[in-house]
Amino acid sequence: MSALAPSPLAIVDAEPLPRQEEVLTDAALAFVAELHRQFTPRRDELLARRAERRAEIARTSTLDFLPETAAVREDDSWKVAPAPAALNDRRVEITGPTDRKMTINALNSGAKVWLADFEDASAPTWENVVLGQLNLTDAYERRIDFTDERSGKSYALKGADELATVVMRPRGWHLDERHLQVEGRAVPGALVDFGLYFFHNAKRLIELGKGPYFYLPKTESYLEARLWNDIFVFAQDYVGIPQGTVRATVLIETITAAYQMEEILYELRDHASGLNAGRWDYLFSIVKNFRDGGSKFVLPDRNLVTMTAPFMRAYTELLVRTCHKRGAHAIGGMAAFIPSRKDAEVNKVAFEKVANDKDREAGDGFDGSWVAHPDLVPIAMKSFDAVLGDKPNQKDRLREDVSVAPGDLIAIDSLDAKPTYDGLVNAVQVGIRYIEAWLRGLGAVAIFNLMEDAATAEISRSQIWQWINAGVVFETGETATADLARKVAAEELAAIREEIGDEAFASGKWQQAHDLLLQLSLDADYADFLTLPAYEQLR
């Protein structure tokens, strides 16, 4: 390992946490500081390029596959590195934050993989950032347990061969970590999350027969994938492990990345293990990028945009074809249903929908898929078992029947569905309820029997903004306006107070959440990410 001078990295504005010295060691902080020194300038350039790309889309209202990378797409000879044994069978993956109870339940869930989430399912409080790291290390060292104070129920890990393989998701490139600074400048949250996890666990994971595996969120271009690849090369040399030990799965959850899937795999080819189809952030990205494009880009209610919509089908089938052509895993979307403990009929209907969704994904050639709750693991497993049998994946299904033209990915107007008044109400309800929980430090929240995360809030506020700016007329005859959104939000706030009582309402962050949702939904200038202004209010 390289010998460096004492870290210039400072911990600021943070109360000490129990056992934080095990995570924030001098050596780990020196590594994070070196990542910052080497790679943050390029991160900054790439964020500026995002803005330039957005301006170009605003001017043209279109996207296409990149002419400058045609040679990469046309060269059939290259493949990504073979999957390590621990990542070869990914037929069901469970997602969730890294709190202590979730860590145990996810590892024990029966899923093949756990997406241990420091991003959309985790509000980035200092406590969640640091103690989440500690929980993962404790799990690898089998010194983790948990007793629920309310129920008295105890949780402990199963045997090593029954545990899910961890694939950790750091924060997206746009988020900084204000509690860690170098010379007064906040370090990107992605480098903090990746750096602390990699430094403490890379060698330990190799000893366990696994490795440092990552999900890369909100990637917008192949150049951003190249940056991650360079970080992996540097990090592996720094701690002295073989090149190619790291594996990364990239979420194709932005519309620009959907046009660069092969290039993204190519940049990461020595470290790539697959691509994933992320639904809510993908729709949010379409609204964000084509917000000037007129009525043909107006999305209906989010729940009416299923994965069978023609433009979503084009995206997912292209993803499967791209992955299998290059020897990578194709991982399907989220089943977000949270089973009801009171209503068996609700569960029956929802379980049937989940089964149909997973049957479709397995039939389309996906190698695995996501669920948000342990009760959904057997349902998804059954769908993929039926197609895979004893095979670990179906990468041999090349899907050469798939042909996607550039316009197919943005053919939003191929949908018959329209925005509805109930859709506006739902966007306001879910937006307020999610943001309130996020401001209290919760990133994964059960709302109306669905597990919601930050992508939920993004699509909710984006749809309100889009419908108002497009002057959408609902089936009720009412026009989407700022005044109508304020009226619906006021009614929802009153309904929440009635539902939970004055005392609980006063102790929560309901007014704050209401105000933030409206601020972002009604501002003339569309904010790139809700989590940026929200983070300023997160204490």
Walk me through what this model shows.
With 539 residues, the chain is an alpha/beta fold. It has two domains: 20-68 and 80-388, Alpha-Beta Barrel (TIM Barrel), CATH 3.20.20.360; 418-536, Malate Synthase G, Chain: A, Domain 4 (Up-down Bundle). The chain is built from 19 helices and 15 strands. The strands form four sheets. An eight-stranded parallel sheet has the order 6-3-2-13-12-11-10-9. A three-stranded antiparallel sheet has the order 1-7-8. Strand 12, helix 12 (344-364) and strand 13 form a beta-alpha-beta unit. The model has no long low-confidence stretch (mean pLDDT 96).
CATH topology of the largest domain: TIM Barrel
Q: Beta-sheet strand percentage? A: 5-15%
How many strand segments?
A: 15
Distance between the termini: 36 Å
Low-confidence stretches: none
Count of runs of 4 or more consecutive helical residues: 19
Which descriptor suits the 3D outline? globular
* CATH level-four homologous superfamily name of the largest domain: Malate synthase, domain 3
Q: Radius of gyration, Cα only, in angstroms?
A: 22 Å
Average per-residue pLDDT, rounded, comes to 96
Estimate percent helicity: 40-55%
Q: What is the CATH top level name of the largest domain?
A: Alpha Beta
Number of domains as seen in the coordinates? 2
Largest sheet: 8 strands, parallel
Strand order of the largest sheet: 6-3-2-13-12-11-10-9
Q: Which architecture of the largest domain per CATH?
A: Alpha-Beta Barrel
Category from helices, strands and their pairing: alpha/beta
